[in-house]
Amino acid sequence: MEHHSHLGNRLTSLVGARLETLGIHGGGGPEPITGAVVPPIFQSTTYAQPRVGSEQDFTYSRAHNPTVSALESALASLEGLAHARCFATGMAATSALALATLESGSHVVCSDVVYGGTVRLLEQVLDRFGVETTFVDTSDPALLAEALRPDTRLVFVETPANPTLKLTDLKAVGEVLADHPALLAVDNTFLTAALQRPAELGADIVVYSTTKYIEGHNSTVGGALVMDCPELCDRLDFVRKTTGSIQSPWEAWLTLRGLKTLPLRMERHSQSARLVARWLADHPSVDTVHYPFLDTFPQRLLAERQQRDGGGMLAFEVRGGLATSLEFMNSLRLCTLAENLGAAETLVTHPPTMTHGDLDPGQRRQRGISDSLVRLSVGLEHPDDLLADLDQALEAATAKVEAS
Question: I need a surface site. Which of 33, 113, 257, 349 has the fewest CB within 10 A?
Fold first, then answer.
């Protein structure tokens, strides 16, 4: 059952609207009782029912909540899909997807480079219940085809990949899966619908940590799954109601507010990240820079076909190894050391010891995550100020390590 049926005419009028318009109006128009332009926070557990056996959209907020449903309508409209379901965190969304699509004996194919929490879920939780996972370089369609089995039920792709920004050609993956029953889920957290719409490239489900760019202000945690299939949506409703993993109305409201500026923010994030990536590529203290719209990026042409822009995420390796990279991060003054991304503030992360610290060194090396790799989420500060901070930190780190 879809919710906010009173918004039908309003949402129909948005068909064909641009992303900037959908981000602002996709959650619906003014609240029908009071005329409030901003959707209210329905901080209610329970909803009165007119009679025994009556059918209504909202009965108990563990199942559905009007504020959360408004966010779901907005996210679905941004993707050009029929349904969205929001969850307490990004990992809650990924877990719900697994519970709704897998059972004991199911097989999953997953990109070899993904967020560390996804690896933990697959290797340390789901495997105990008889779900087997094969990690494969999904940037090579032939390797993906080899990994598929008759019992493969889900192919989980992250592109750009966290933290190396490696890309997967989603159209090529869709062709590989054309005659296979496995569902294709694409984690689009790094780009959002503002820069990439995976469903247009063959994805069945789009996965988000809305904590990141969608909310965009370091204020909430949340996750979402967006799809066309009503049967899958019904299964997700059942899983979410049963496990109690729905997003709270307050956090949904904050996320709706962030969504209004998403296209504008992603444009600025991309502009600044491209400038920073080019500057780093020319810096004598930097070995390698990973950014999809950089001329030296091996998959640059694929990035231009598949993405509207490069996004705000980049990674680079500091010359001098682990000691220099750690000293660099400890020397930053404006950029914040944190295990997050996609916010107005520029955030720097050391994947080997933070987001991917649970992987053993061999697993990290196999995935291209060197000890000196630094992940940078370029924020909305003036880029000249960011460059000045990066420059002084690189200079300080190099001098300190050389002197020791």
Answer: 33
Catalytic: 187? yes
Q: How far is the C-alpha of 244 from the C-alpha of 94, rounded, in Å?
A: 14
One-letter amino acid of 241: K
8 A C-beta contact, residue 333 and residue 398: no
Tell me, yes or no, if 365 is annotated catalytic: no
Give pLDDT tens digits for 250-291: 999 999 999 999 999 999 999 999 999 999 999 999 999 999
Lowest-pLDDT range, 6-10, 160-164, 292-296? 6-10
**Contact yes or no for 183/153 (Cβ under 8 A):** yes
Q: Of the residues 85, 153, 166, 212, which is catalytic? A: 212
Catalytic residue, from 10, 47, 62, 149: name it: 62
115, 208, 213, 291: the catalytic one is 115
Q: Is 282 a catalytic residue?
A: no
